Amino acid sequence: MLLFYLFGAIAVGASLLVVLGRNPMHSVLLLIVSFAALAGLYIGLEAPFAAVVQIIIYAGAIMVLFLFVVMLLNAHREDDAPGARPGLAHGPLRAGAVLALLLVAELGWALTRAGRGEGDLLASGPGADPAALQSVRSLGNVLFTEYSLAFEVTSILIIVAMVGAVVLARRES
Amino acid sequence: MVPLGHYLILSAILFATGTMGVFLRRNVITMLLSIEVMLNAVNLAFIAFGRTHGSVDGQVIMFFVVTVAAAEAAIGLALVIALFRHRESLNPDVFTSLKW
Amino acid sequence: MIPVYVAQLGMVLAVFVMLLLSAAVMVYSERKVAAFIQQRYGPYLVGPRGLLQPIADVIKLMFKEPLRPVAADKAIFILAPILSATAAFAAFAVVPFGGESTFFGLLDEPIKLQVADVNVAVLVVFAITSISVYGIVLAGWSSNSKYSLLGALRSASQMISYELSYGMALASVLVLAGSLSLTDIVNAQQGAWLGFIPRWFVFVQPLGFVIFMIAGVAETNRAPFDFPEAEQELVAGYHTEYSSTAFMMFFLAEYINMVTAAAVAANLFLGGWHGPFLPEYLGWIWFLVKIAAILFFYIWMRWTLPRLRYDQLMQFGWKVLLPLAALNLIVTAAGVIYLGN
């Protein structure tokens, strides 16, 4: 329980700093911290494979891509265009942000109202540690049988993304 | 054990943070990072639900979300690079050629 | 008599000290072996046969003046070596180096010779090595110097590219062993065929072993893949602007990464701590022998082979190593399905 609050606080704090930070380089690093905290939460949710995959792919590859782009574009010294307050948006978009906060408040209210939110997380499923060992095997099973179409389509998606990224970022010469 | 509701509220807070980031920040890279925050919030919700119902489907969907996020980040960043080459700025308000 | 958690704490401490000592031993043996290959004496002044040379190096490095370029991003400049060193140590936390042992009855029940027995141990090592890319990239960036940045970006691209072949060679072993836990993989290599050929995976997977070793050398930025820290081309690459303790951190991180890569290779392909003639609880001696052999091979490669140019390096990684690794995985998987061993 303590670990949940710890990792949750780190995740929320890091995400807030990502969103509000001035320097995109620092934002990227804080997002990596947030990912690590989320991986900790996944381990608490008995999904160790998901946690490790999160670190390998998200924190280990995607964020390196972001870092490369930030370094390439020298974005850490980028001044935003003159606005009411540099870095923050004007009127209508602020309203959108307020709506997001309303979403959280509503969700919290709904969960406490209906009483569903206080259900025990150990409701069903296999036991503690054997489940983790079995889960990788069963995960692979489910992934390649029920979700095999999605799997193949995802591989096509990745190829398309690779080709697209190379074409889009190419210098016109 | 930690009740499901806690995880959902944490996920909602993260999602709202990401959404605020996309709306409020005027720097394309920070907006892309906020989108990643939102996707992570959704991942957390999926895995929490998967654990509640004792099935691995939550994790499977999380993998697909991660994969799609990777593809989208790659394309998004390539677009950012192409845009930057054009106008030397990372502020989305600068790219107004399509406005009426 | 001694409660288990005290023993586990002791295990953490023991592993930490062992890693530091192994880095010191590596420094010394690298210079001695290099000298042997180049037909000269190595260090021989400090201590008997130069054995205290690493201590002299550490003392020298600690007394140097810590420098920091003025325009460097201070937080990231300090973070980068810390991240490198931490990731290097953390990767060894899930590597087992012996079977269960009770230390001659001191403990109530046997504990494994491992800091943490995670059942996705292989992936944890992989994850932490992908985090160690950051130490290098951030070091290069925060030094605010052309040489550092170039070295850092090249090194990061190289590490990410070779991670793919690393992962696929790893996956071939997983297919054979059927489990992600390093302890299970090592235990699957017990016994021997025909009584004297040990049942190591290197005999079943020779190509996989070669791919893993090459990828491991590229991952740890060692020659012939050490272009990012090439002394002749880039001054010193990503750690150009660092001195004193921070430089020592990078130095340490590199050697400990090598030790971890060798340890993982020994566990995956060479049977870990199993070996003839010794009882089970002395298996760590065999483990040390195997790691020493692999590390000797690393040092030998560094001082014998010429350095690859960066584009040759990347071409080799993507056009040769990756297809071979994929082929290896397919053949292994087919073999397991049809032969059922």
What's this model, at a glance?
The complex is a heterotrimer of chains A (173), B (100) and C (341). By secondary structure, chain B is mainly alpha-helical.
Description:
The complex is a heterotrimer of chains A (173), B (100) and C (341). Helix content of chain A is 73%, strand content 0%. With 173 residues, chain A is mostly helical. Chain B is mainly alpha-helical and 100 residues long. Chain B contains 3 helices and no strands. Chain C is mainly alpha-helical. In chain C, 64% of the residues lie in helices and 3% in strands. Chain C has a two-stranded antiparallel ribbon. Chain C has a two-stranded antiparallel sheet with strand order 3-4. Chain C is globular, with a radius of gyration of 21 Å.
Strand content of chain C: under 5%
Largest sheet of chain A: none
- The tally of beta strands of chain C, per DSSP, is 4
Identify the overall geometry of chain C: globular
User: Distance between termini of chain C?
Assistant: 43 Å
Low-confidence stretches of chain C: none
- Main beta sheet strand tally, sense and closure of chain C: 2 strands, antiparallel
CATH homologous superfamily grouping of the largest domain in chain A: NADH-ubiquinone/plastoquinone oxidoreductase chain 6, subunit NuoJ
Q: Of all protein chain pairs, which has the greatest interface, and how many residues does each chain bring to it?
A: A-B, 89 and 74 residues
Q: Evaluate the radius of gyration of chain A.
A: 21 Å
- Radius of gyration of chain C (Å): 21 Å
Task: Indicate the CATH architecture of the largest domain in chain A.
Answer: Up-down Bundle
Total DSSP helices of chain A:
6
Could you name the key traits of this structure?
heterotrimer, A: 173 residues, mainly alpha, Four Helix Bundle (Hemerythrin (Met), subunit A), 6 helices, globular, C: 341 residues, two-stranded antiparallel sheet, 11 helices, 64% helix
